[in-house]
Amino acid sequence: MSKEQQITLGKVGAVYGIKGWLRIHSFTDDPDAILDYFPWSLKLGNNTQTVEITDWRKHNKGLIVKVAGIDDRDIAQKLVSSEILVNESALPELPEGDFYWRDLIGMKVVTNKGYDLGVVSDLLETGANDVLVVKANLNDGFGKKERLIPYTLGQAVESVSAENKQICVDWDPGF
Question: In sequence order, what E strands does 46-115 have?
Answer without folding.
Answer: 47-51, 53-59, 62-67, 83-87, 108-111
